[in-house]
Structure to design on (283 residues):
């Protein structure tokens, strides 16, 4: 398991658990639907963080007889879990917010209640920056999904703050409206994360920039005259490549094979590439 990814997932679990407790206390004591909704958001984050931890750990296992190409597909599964939880939570918050709009219940706002969303925005902003750096460095879709979720939580907390402040200044309707805004934002974030990770699981081709890097790595090897075919797809968070290279037909089989191995090693030095399959075309 990647050590940086391991530390990031543990930090995510601890951070979201702490924020959940803080928001729950403030939400229940004040009766704010926006804060309670944000607390539920943090609870789903805790569950998603645990799922991410498990899946990142599984994805770090070495290939075995039952999984000859490794366990890389485990990480996008974590992303899908986050997406599903976000959708469930979003619709639950919509229901609670509409109910509050109909009942017109008052809330009790104090300094602690107002401070909680501010603390949340600061904490989630820092978590977003950290997870994005680690996610890019380790090329982990699960951590990138977590980073996206963290930055979404900053805006969720801002909506909660607006709703609470509105209630404090005599506009109690802003609290359930903030709850509705939060719910729609959560659903949107879940949809985006889900579609991205479905693409990983469906074997989507990498971006054109990555394909260009693959071709350049192959063509830089002495003896490669041209490339006939270059295809690649995601296997989980990693990329598998199939590449057909042209070599001089007068070369011995041993020499052609050696060129192919150098191409394989060169392509596999690209960080996101897990495996390259090279086919020799004599010309």
């Amino acid at each position: 398991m990647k050590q940086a990814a391991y530390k990031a997932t543990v930090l995510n679990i601890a951070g979201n658990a702490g924020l959940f407790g803080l928001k729950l206390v403030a939400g229940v004591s004040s009766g704010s639907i926006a804060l309670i909704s944000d607390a539920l958001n943090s609870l789903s984050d805790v569950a998603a963080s645990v799922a991410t931890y498990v899946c990142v750990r599984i994805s770090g296992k070495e290939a075995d007889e039952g999984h000859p190409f490794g366990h890389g597909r485990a990480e996008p599964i974590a992303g899908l879990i986050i997406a599903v939880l976000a959708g469930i939570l979003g619709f639950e918050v919509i229901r609670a917010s509409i109910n509050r709009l109909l009942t017109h219940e008052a809330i009790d706002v104090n300094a602690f209640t107002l401070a909680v969303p501010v603390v949340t925005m600061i904490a989630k902003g820092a978590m977003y920056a950290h997870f994005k750096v680690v996610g890019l460095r380790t090329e982990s879709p699960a951590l990138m999904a977590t980073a996206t979720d963290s930055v979404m939580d900053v805006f969720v907390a801002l909506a909660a703050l607006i709703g609470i402040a509105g209630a404090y200044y005599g506009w109690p309707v802003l609290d359930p409206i903030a709850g509705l805004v939060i719910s729609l934002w959560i659903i949107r974030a879940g949809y985006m994360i889900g579609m991205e990770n479905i693409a990983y699981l469906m074997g989507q081709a990498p971006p054109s920039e990555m394909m260009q890097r693959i071709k350049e790595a192959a063509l830089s090897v002495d003896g490669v005259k041209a490339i006939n075919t270059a295809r690649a797809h995601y296997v989980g968070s990693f990329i598998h490549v199939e590449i057909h290279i042209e070599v001089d037909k007068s070369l011995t089989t041993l020499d052609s094979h050696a060129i192919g191995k150098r191409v394989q090693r060169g392509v596999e030095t690209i960080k996101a590439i897990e495996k390259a399959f090279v086919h020799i075309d004599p010309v």
